[in-house]
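Input chain follows. Return structure tokens only.
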Amino acid sequence: MRLVARGVGKRFGPLAVLDDISLEVGPGEIVAVVGPSGCGKSTLLRILGGLERADAGVVETVGAPPSASLNPITYVFQDFALLPWRSVLDNVCFALEHRVGDRARRREMATQALAALGLSEFHDAFPKQLSGGMKQRVGLARALAVKPAVLLMDEPLSALDAQTRELFMADLVRLLAREPFAGVYVTHNLDEAALLARRIVVLSRRPGRVRRVFEVDTPVGARSADDPAIVVLRQAIWEELRADAAAADREILDV
């Protein structure tokens, strides 16, 4: 299943936030969306996920989701969004409660999702007992438990330290190879975009418009931060962003 946006626009009252945004993402690839603060990246993600209505343009899926998919379009949130009174296992089961009637089957599926992220030993732990990286892994396990066709990620690594971020990106690369979902990845971090994405969509300052799309041909699993091609790519993205980022930094309103 592919996710396609054509000519998407959004206003909040008199404030134009997005204008004529088009992108497409298919199975086994990630499209990263980068841009200055306030350019509407998170608003775009909400529109793609059906949480916000566009004022112009079309968002549609093309093709059927995999037969095993229980929730074709799924989110990974920036702030983990775990329920503090539930154990790790029960947090993952929560995503399945209205989709899988059999409790034993829910627990089996949640156990498999946690195992895929190296969390088998933490079923009975509670969120307050986990590090930031482990909390985000639980959030990702919960998203993957429903077998999404499209995974929408809103700055999922922004709350993590540098070392944990590196480990989490490695997890994401490995999972993408094994479970070929289509991913849209909103981030301020250009290294994450350059290392994870097949295409990188650069938005202008508000109203967000597509300034440029970078294609990255190197397989995701073969990239490294010190690869000269990745260093050049990151610099090219920054040069595309620099002026708008400086202007946005002087603005007060952040959407």
